[in-house]
């Protein structure tokens, strides 16, 4: 497939079929994400006190979650929102129905069929999807072309189009704005810039529906680019986010205040966060550290109390958890699960997490032998965790955890033979689990 830069399509000559050379500017204060003076407005403090008094009621009667985990029947394409140009306050705001789920390797398409993107051993981006909303069979792998130096992720934009993002083998961030299986016209791979980029990008919509992409370079710098206006295809230049050098891929997630939060694991093992100062805003908090050290970037989910929960491995392979304490990047120290662990306890890669149909978070982690283990919240207030359950498998890489249209959890991985494999619940928040699928095919790269 031809590869153009965004600027080619904005005013250049795409017919030349050549990528536009890109270089990153030297990081300086004018190119970093703006950091305003630190301070707290008195009105915000009063609002937080009021919300805190209401919060106790919400704990007793958990509110319904929004978006992909909504308890109501889906009536529109995942991620569909009000059209671009909806009225929002200057400098920020919230667009009704924007997608609160970040990009992943498994996302629902416009027909609510789970769609998996991956990197082939040939170095291209490939896609497969389930043949129906609740069907186990898949349609086979389609080569989307492009150049994949790392793993791709997908996200639905405000126009309902499924976009894919990947770092190319040349170290450039690229994206295809339309990979939906039902699209009448497939998209074209476009360059978003960069040099010496590595790993897997983190992408999410902000509350205005703009897609934000974060990616690291080989020297550990974390870069950011975003749509200047949602759904238009116009992107900002890459900017240094100003966090210390990282050792793992960045992670991004929306919080309960409709603000994007960036997570960056430093080479010192300290995870740091930066959040938008207001929904849809263009200024961000300075980097703030979560006390303690871990060895992987976190898996992130919003719990039934609308708090972000983080799950990572420490350098020994133990699962560690940190819980959001409120706005302004306040978190608990990292804590371990030793008190209720059984089984191997030590794991080999970043865990995965999702919310089940009953509102409990479920964590999955792979051991060095390829088996996947499951633990989920339990007890009063969901403050405890069940002992690990061995779900078996011959998995060399855990790729995604997702809920299908019928609210069953599905766990995906790449098997030792390079094919896609999957297990799922037999019903919403109910076992038994299926056996690992052996008919999903694929010749997929790992690592």
UniProtKB/TrEMBL annotation:
Keyword Transmembrane helix recorded: yes
Domain PLL-like beta propeller: 136-336
Membrane spanning residue stretches: 48-69
Top-rank taxon: Bacteria
Gene3D superfamilies linked to this entry: Fucose-specific lectin (2.120.10.70)
Name of a matching Pfam family: DUF8189
Keyword line: Membrane, Transmembrane, Transmembrane helix
Region (Disordered) residue spans: 1-34
Coiled-coil features, chain-numbered ranges: none
Entry keyword annotation includes Ribonucleoprotein: no
Official protein name in the record: PLL-like beta propeller domain-containing protein
Organism: Saccharopolyspora gregorii
């Amino acid at each position: 497939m031809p590869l153009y830069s965004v600027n080619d399509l904005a005013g250049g000559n795409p017919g030349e079929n050549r990528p536009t050379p890109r270089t990153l500017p030297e990081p300086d204060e004018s190119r970093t994400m703006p950091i305003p003076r630190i301070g707290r407005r008195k009105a915000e403090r009063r609002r937080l006190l009021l919300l805190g008094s209401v919060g106790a009621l919400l704990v007793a009667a958990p509110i319904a979650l929004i978006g992909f985990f909504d308890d109501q029947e889906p009536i529109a394409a995942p991620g569909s929102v009000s059209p671009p140009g909806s009225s929002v306050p200057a400098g920020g705001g919230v667009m009704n129905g924007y997608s609160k789920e970040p990009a992943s390797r498994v996302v629902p398409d416009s027909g609510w069929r789970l769609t998996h993107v991956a990197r082939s051993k040939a170095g291209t981006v490939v896609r497969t999807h389930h043949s129906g909303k609740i069907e186990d069979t898949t349609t086979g792998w389609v080569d989307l072309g492009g150049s994949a130096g790392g793993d791709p992720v997908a996200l639905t934009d405000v126009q309902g189009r499924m976009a894919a993002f990947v770092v190319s083998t040349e170290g450039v961030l690229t994206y295809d704005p339309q990979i939906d299986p039902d699209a009448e016209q497939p998209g074209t791979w476009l360059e978003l810039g960069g040099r010496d980029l590595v790993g897997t990008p983190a992408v999410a919509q902000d509350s205005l529906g703009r897609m934000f992409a974060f990616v690291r370079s080989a020297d550990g710098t974390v870069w950011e680019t975003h749509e200047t206006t949602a759904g238009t295809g116009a992107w900002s230049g890459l900017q240094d986010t100003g966090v210390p050098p990282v050792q793992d891929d960045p992670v991004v997630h929306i919080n309960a205040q409709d603000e994007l939060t960036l997570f960056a694991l430093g080479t010192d093992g300290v995870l740091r966060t930066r959040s938008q100062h207001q929904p849809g805003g263009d200024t961000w908090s300075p980097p703030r550290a979560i006390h303690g050290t871990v060895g992987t970037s976190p898996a992130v989910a919003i719990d039934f109390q609308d708090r972000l929960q983080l799950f990572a491995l420490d350098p020994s392979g133990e699962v560690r958890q940190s819980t959001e304490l409120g706005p302004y990047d306040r978190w608990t120290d990292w804590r371990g699960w030793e008190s209720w662990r059984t089984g191997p306890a030590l794991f080999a890669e970043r865990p995965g997490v999702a919310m089940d149909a009953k509102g409990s978070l479920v964590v999955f982690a792979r051991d060095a032998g390829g088996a996947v283990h499951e633990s989920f919240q339990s007890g009063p207030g969901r403050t405890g965790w069940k002992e690990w359950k061995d779900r078996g498998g011959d998995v060399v890489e855990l790729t995604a955890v997702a809920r299908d249209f019928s609210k069953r959890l599905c766990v995906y991985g790449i098997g030792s033979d390079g094919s896609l494999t999957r297990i799922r619940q037999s019903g919403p928040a109910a076992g038994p689990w299926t056996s690992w699928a052996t008919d999903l095919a694929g010749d997929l790269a790992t690592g």
